[in-house]
Amino acid sequence: MSQNSVQQFIRQYELFENDQIQQTQLQHRYALVEAFGIKKGMKVLEIGCGQGDTTVVLADVVGENGHVTAVDIAPPDYGAPFTLGEAHERVNQSKLGDRIDFHLETDFLEMKLDKQYDAVVLSHCSWYFHDPAQLLAYFKRIRSISNILCFAEWDMQFEKITQRGHFCAASILALYSQFTANDGNIQNLFGKSEIKKMIEDAGLKVDHELRVDAHFLQDGQWEIDYAKEVTKEFAAAPVRIQTLVQNYADMLDVEGKNESLDSFVIVAK
Questions:
Q1: 59, 125, 38, 2: CA torsion to nearest 10
Q2: Considering its fold, how many domains does the chain have in total?
Q3: Cα 44 from chain centre
Q4: E strand intervals along the chain
Q5: CA-CA distances (angstroms) from residue 263 to 32, 131, 153?
Q6: Does residue 1 register a pLDDT over 60?
Q7: Coil, helix or strand for 259?
Q8: Does any domain span residue 77?
Q9: pLDDT at site 155
Q10: What is the pLDDT of residue 248?
């Protein structure tokens, strides 16, 4: 279903025609948005939109009568190979542009919000949060502007040995953020149980949860490659941490076949 949606998306909006990586990402985003239960005509707020991978799928699914407000705390020049600003400009010039408002350098907690949203989406952005208290504050504010929270993140409870490398890489990078200030995309490894507790502490109730296949994505290998680069920088860390990191590093590759972790989805109301 999601593969067909991607091809229809490309034909309709003339985006990512020659970008196989982006097409693969879109396939997963369609699966996530379907799991969220997003419908035509909805007004959606997306927090942590990044380059807009999920944003464009949300905009397609809500249709001409729906709308997506997409915010991110990062500046326009953040990101590679395309910056966020460049990626958003490309989307704005497409047929989807009228359905989306992008807001960069925007902290959700400081946004002036004078309307309700049919759903608020946080998709693969929670690991960027430096402080768990800030994520909890986000959940609490979401409750005041919407009846539906749609959340997705990598599931550290991997089911296949080929996903072990992504698990180990994420663990290394989370430790790296503890010992080295950086703006990498892994600051905290929030797992399913911790997210569910935060959601409940914010006054929301989990409506349903499910697992979404993501083994085919490139993200796992990207994280593995980056983890290999930073492993040597633990030389100044305590010896016990160095030993732990080396054990993770030794498990990064599984006979040359590495796959991404799956995603877990939680919808709360």
A1: 80
A2: 1
A3: 16
A4: 43-47, 67-71, 100-103, 119-123, 149-154, 206-212, 263-268
A5: 8, 22, 5
A6: no
A7: coil
A8: yes
A9: 98
A10: 97
d(CA 123, CA 179): 26
Instruction: Give the residue among 143, 129, 186 at the shortest CA–CA distance from 45.
Output: 143
CA dist 140 and 201 (Å) reads: 8
Q: For 103, phi and psi rounded to 5 degrees?
A: -135, 105
**What is the token pair recorded at 156?**
């550290």
Radius of gyration of the chain from Cα atoms? 18
Pairing of strands 67-71, 43-47: parallel
Domain assignment of residue 232, yes or no: no
Query: Distance between alpha carbon 143 and the CA centroid of its chain, in Å?
Result: 20
172 lies in some domain: no
Q: What is the pLDDT of residue 240?
A: 96
- Whether residue 106 lies inside any domain: the answer is yes
Within 10 A of 203 (CB to CB), how many other CB atoms are there?
12
Q: How many CB atoms lie within 10 A of CB 86?
A: 13
């047929």: which residue's tokens?
95
Q: For residue 254, what pLDDT is reported? A: 80
CA distance 208 to 165: 29
All residues at 6 or more sequence positions from 112 whose CB lies less than 8 Å from its CB, including other chains: none
Task: Give the structural domain span for 125.
Answer: 2-158+183-218+262-268
CATH number at residue 57: 3.40.50.150
Residue 2's pLDDT band, with cuts at 50, 70 and 90, is low
Stretch 236-265: mean pLDDT: 93
